[in-house]
Design goal:
12 strands; Aspartate Aminotransferase, domain 1; 3-stranded antiparallel β-sheet; Rossmann fold; globular; 12% strand; alpha/beta
């Protein structure tokens, strides 16, 4: 009997310890679902928000300013509008053409689109601005073109001419806004009045930090439209967007900006278009490499520009080995961190170039414009030649740069953070 009592007491204790052990293990194991970090909503372009403008366009005669970046989803905006029953009368094409088959700087002729049978009016040929006749059978004009946020990228010139035409002919302009991939920073010297040209029309820095919709408001607000006229605007805003947000373009904005890397390097590398240094035109890696034949022995990396129809028919240093910098794997996160145009590459290659008197010689470079027009100032070239420090170069951009940054705030549709 005593043995049984001992046995049952031991059994009870054993059960107690086993139960306690199981309870402890169950308590230590979380039963709640793991927390998954939430990601920010992706930007939705104005074009992709058809519910915001299709009903507005119905019953109207519509014109469209477009190029290959003009897409709704994965379909060309022109094709989509026609499929949605919009009375699209004609398309206006900027540099590179409506379907993007023209090279950099090449004049584009009026034509009829083979796919839609729509008339295409070139804004990069006989005229840069729609005429009264062009707009006579149109009630409203749509602007849907991707920009990359630089003063010397000609889409903002096209925007201005279109706004002038609309203001002169009492037509409304509907802008389908798109993110600016370089909209996270504002930097560079302010354009000097004496250097106004087709690659720089207004007193803005190299990177202006505005979307096309915001830039249109800037042009209206600052009285830049011819005669200080005001263009009637209807802007379809981007959803879920801030300027600080990284954005990878779904379509290359032009033939020689064919990778996300090239688009982010473009604000810094386009300055080389006014030098003897090739930026990789005539290769499949434009605006990600820099070099020239005279730098042989200075740099191990090389590339050879050749004629490429639709991209660069007669590139600088054609069929010659160019030696220099390979920036295809450069960490563009550094650009986002510094929020500055990179001047170090310009300074480095100038110092390395053996015939310095030829470095900024436009007659040698045969590019889209001379260096001073690209930079927007005569100072930068002189400062590079004189060996002025980067810090002092940047100081010389003030107070103009800071004044522009303050002015820009008036026209923002999206926050900076």
């Amino acid at each position: 009997m005593k043995v049984n009592k001992i046995f049952f007491s031991g059994l009870i204790l054993l059960v107690f310890f086993l139960t306690a052990s199981i309870t402890c293990r169950q308590t230590a194991t979380p039963t709640a679902k793991p927390i998954v970090p939430q990601t920010a909503a992706k930007p939705i372009t104005g074009a992709d928000q058809t519910d915001k403008y299709i009903s507005y366009l119905r019953g109207k005669r519509v014109g469209l300013v477009a190029n290959p970046t003009s897409v709704i989803g994965k379909q060309a905006t022109a094709d989509s509008l026609l499929a949605l029953g919009i009375n699209l009368k004609k398309v206006f094409g900027p540099e590179h053409g409506f379907r993007g088959n023209a090279s950099n700087g090449a004049k584009v002729q009026d034509e009829v689109d083979a796919k839609t049978n729509l008339p295409i009016i070139s804004l990069y040929g006989k005229t840069a601005k729609p005429t009264k006749e062009h707009l006579s059978d149109i009630d409203v004009l749509i602007f849907d073109i991707q920009d990359v946020g630089c003063r010397f990228y000609t889409n903002i010139n096209t925007l201005e001419y279109v706004m002038e035409a609309c203001a002169e002919n009492n037509k409304e302009l509907v802008i389908l806004d798109r993110p600016n991939p370089n909209g996270y920073f504002v930097d560079g010297p302010i354009l000097e009045d004496s250097l106004r040209s087709g690659i720089g029309k207004h007193r803005i820095p190299i990177t202006h930090g505005l979307t096309i919709g915001e830039f249109a408001q800037f042009l209206n607000g600052e009285g830049y439209i011819e005669g200080k006229a005001k263009c009637k605007l209807k802007i379809i805003k981007i959803a879920n967007y801030t300027h600080a947000m990284p954005y990878e373009l779904p379509v290359k904005p032009s033939p020689n900006l064919n990778t996300p890397q090239s688009i982010l390097l473009y604000p810094s590398l386009c300055l080389f278009e006014g030098t003897i240094i090739s930026q990789g035109r005539g290769t499949q890696m434009p605006f990600t490499v820099l070099g020239a034949p005279a730098l042989k022995g200075k740099f191990p990396f090389s590339f050879r520009p050749v004629s490429i129809p639709g991209m660069s028919e007669t590139p600088l240093h054609q069929n010659q080995d160019c030696y220099g910098l390979d920036l295809r794997n450069y960490d563009t996160g550094l650009l986002r961190k510094n929020k500055q145009v990179n001047l170090k590459w310009l300074m480095e290659l100038y110092q390395a170039y053996p015939e310095k008197e030829k470095f900024f010689d436009f007659t040698q470079s045969k590019q889209m414009g001379n260096f001073d027009k690209l930079a927007g100032t005569t100072q930068l070239r002189k400062q590079i030649i004189a060996g002025v420090s980067e810090a002092d170069i940047r100081k010389s951009w003030e107070p103009g740069l800071s004044n522009y940054k303050q002015l820009r705030k008036k026209y923002l549709l999206y926050p900076d953070n």
